[in-house]
Amino acid sequence: MLKTKFSRVIYLESINLNTQQQKVALVTGAAGFIGFYVSRRLLDEGWCVIGVDCMSDFYDISLKEARENILLQNKSYISIHQSIEAPSVLMKIFEEEKPDIVIHLAAQAGVRYSIENPRSYLKSNIIGTFELLEAAKAYPPKHMLLASTSSAYGANKEMPYKETDKADHQVSFYAATKKSTENIAHSYSHIYELPITMFRFFTVYGPWGRPDMALFKFTKAILEGNPIELYNKGKMKRDFTYIEDIVNSILLLMDKTPNFDYNSHTLDSLSPVAPFRIINIGNTNAVSLIDFVKAIECAVGVEAKKIFLPMQPGDVHATWANSNLLQSLTGYTCKTDISTGVKAFVEWYCSYYDTK
Q: Which domain holds residue 95?
């Protein structure tokens, strides 16, 4: 157990956390949507969690603060408010705490915003990941698990997407930066023998989700009587994956450290030259945007006013995951159906914002 009760935020002047015998996990982006859920589960399972988050104003900071306040109720959670791309921030944490596991979820997200502000993606996604890998090179953890995105598949037409498919034609700067982090991470894995697993997440949703994502925006608009905007005239498909399925998958994969036992005759994405693997985490079911909206309408009890718009730059028509590798490694399959997941989000939204 920790010698000191940590119920405060640390700003890195001194981070001697005295974690002693506890297993230590470093989670970047810990006040974010996925980071919050991952950190909470790790705490429940007895880990000491060091959460790093810059608390950016990309969306409502109060939502991040609410998530963080829940985590801070656990004495084994320490929050550090810093940007991961800032030199020496991560190096200092690695040097003093030598985390056993690293789960890297910090990133500038959003396809459309990457067109408006590409520099923020360059800094957070690429430079931030570089700083993380430099720290890991100096103080190697047992396993690093880094978030990528289904957007990395870009213009690929053949679906469901498999990890062994080529992914060379990203169609947004966001996707390009995430694919770049995969390549950079692989090079570090090869040169320094760092065990790295990259996740390609497929459209994560659920309670405590981001306000810039479709489910949040649509629910808010419908409840307020405002119209919702459907791009490509609603003719889009996404592999919506519920947050609890994402977290279950991540925790199960923590012990599945990549090694050099490469078999070119399998569908495994394991690198032939590095302890590096890419894994899809998706629901393996492409749902049309119209059906997604119907699930929200059903949960809210109100029909949406719809505005149909053309395809937006950087978007793809569909995503659909092949998750056979996840199942073969862990025995787990993401299985939450869209109606159940959307209902859970709407119930959380109405409770959190005191609507209805």
A: 9-352
Alpha helices in the chain (DSSP H): 33-44, 61-72, 89-97, 113-116, 118-121, 128-138, 173-192, 214-223, 243-253, 289-300, 324-330, 338-352
Kindly report the CATH number assigned to the domain that includes residue 127.
3.40.50.720
Residue 2 lies in a domain: no
pLDDT digits (tens, 9 = 90+) for 78-111: 999 999 999 999 999 999 999 999 999 999 887 7
- Examine residue 310 and state whether it is found in any structural domain, yes or no: yes
> Is the pTM higher than 0.85?
yes
Determine, yes or no, domain membership for 306.
yes
Per the annotation, the verdict on 121 as an active-site residue is: no
Q: pLDDT digits over 49-73, tens only?
A: 999 999 998 889 999 999 999 999 9
Assess if residue 4 is contained within a domain.
no
Given 161, 174, 188, 205, which residue is catalytic? Answer: 174
